[in-house]
Fold these 3 entries.
Entry 1:
Amino acid sequence: MIRLVCHSGLSVTKFSSRTVEVPPPPSEKLLVLGGNGFVGSHICKEALNRGLTIGSLSRSGRSSIKEPWANNVIWHQGNLLSDGSWKDSTKGVTSVISCVGGFGSNAQMYKINGTANINAIRVASEEGNSRSMLLDVIANVTSEGKRAAETELLTRYPYGGVILRPGFIYGTRRVGTINLPLGVIGSPLEMVLQHAKPLSQVPLVGPLFTPPVDVNAVARAAVRAATDPVFAPGVVDVFGILRHNQRR
């Protein structure tokens, strides 16, 4: 059966013995670096909700999360600072999202925020992954390693590299056996500060007026940036993340 749509808006159904084969939509496979962490696990869950194939790479491998959706994630174990222990996880992947970041001495921060992400970006580019993204999970901290990783990303992915800078991310964060409801503080602050963008640009005190953002909003923006070909490359700040979530 073939359905014809006329310019008047009426549809006409015409029967034909001819079979028209429609190719299936292209499959998306995402790899989240640090997918068993607070932000990374929410990205994995969001990707699964959208029907995507999702893999996670981390040093510990499988997450300790006991929720049913975690069984549908492909858990890889590997160290981005060690060659050969993780490159197979990028096979067949269309987009890579990095949630790798941490504190420490200057040398440690360069390794975690810089070298680890740079290694991932280079391998993703060599494997032909169409899009790659860095998610700034360390709020309001600028380091030499982070800047180096961002430069590498935008150099290798001038048309498909996205940097998300959400600032403080709130949600229920699990620390050991304790659940910390950060939304109790974060949600009211977001409501107040989301309209204070001019104040956030004031030198020195500006970061104090940057609104927190819900981890689910960050996850939605991350998955959209990784899969939507019309998502503009470059840097997306917290206000851009909130704006993208309003377009759902």
Note: The first strand starts at residue 2 and ends at 5.
Entry 2:
Amino acid sequence: MKTLQVRMKMLISTLYLISGPVCCSDVFGYSGGSVIVLPDLRWDVNHTRYVCKMEQSGCVNFIKDQTKSKSVTSGRFKIYSNTEGNFTVLIRELSPQDSAVYRFGVGNESHKDVELTVQSGEMI
């Protein structure tokens, strides 16, 4: 019985920390949690895929990949193709400093800008 209680607490904690997948231009997350962003782009192994943070000086790359791989991880960021072949981004261990506009792109022409807001404190 005690094992079941521990597993339930772990499940609830995991669900608490994951904000869930979103497909929009504004994403909200909580400090310490994760977000999954579906930027409405098709995964294409024949073109460069990238994630960057928009700053005054331009697009600062976190991940830029030109391989044929189906997923690429760099630190707390992971880009991959989901089961429908869509470009998907996982950002883990969020902090308020992650709040910014991010650009998700495939090739030179197709990209989507998403504003991430990370709130400190607990989810309600």
Note: The helical segments are 2-17.
Entry 3:
Amino acid sequence: MADEIMLLDWWSSMFGMRVRIALVEKGLNYESREEDLNNKSPLLLEMNPVHRKIPVLIHNGKPICESQIIVEYIDEVWKDKSPLLPTDPYQRAQARFWADYIDNKYDPILSLNIDHVRQIFELGGKIWTSKGEDQEAAKKELMECLQILEGELGEKPFFGGENFGFVDVSLVTFSCWFYAYESFGNFSIEAECPKLITWTKRCLQKSSVSSSLPDPLKIHDFVVQLRKKFGIE
């Protein structure tokens, strides 16, 4: 009996994009259901009653929530094709560390997780929703984060080495939002992180990535509408 796979998603979600990439990497057929995040479906609320958010993967009727957990699940269940996590335990731990770094912000003094803030997601959002000193602070912090990631990438083609993997999936989905961040923040990511942008272009050569990420101009137009909705000029 064939696996029944459904993804509850939203087109502009970088977290949903991660799952899409992983599913395509594994060559899996699945049903995608676009959620109205202002009027969440009974199915979403049933499948993710704790956080009540996308993405949710439903595999043979059973839900898996949180994008990185979903990607790991996909990699473990369909392990015979396009492995995303290394087999070596140390390398696997390192991949999880950097994926966690992408998503979670920590207090550098207390070493405590700050309300599970999603680091790049939160900083990018501050850039297009704020002005003045707040925006400048967000830009500075985002670039510091990206520069650290660029340092980890180094001269490697992908974060894990020669092959596209878990950390690449975790980060590349933000790239379609970079143009919006740059446009409203009046700065250039490529000017400060050229290797990271070269890596982005390399990832986009993979059909699993290019088919899963929306056009950056569409994201930009979406942000324009959000700014109008929220009264941000």
Note: The two ends are 54 Å apart (CA to CA).
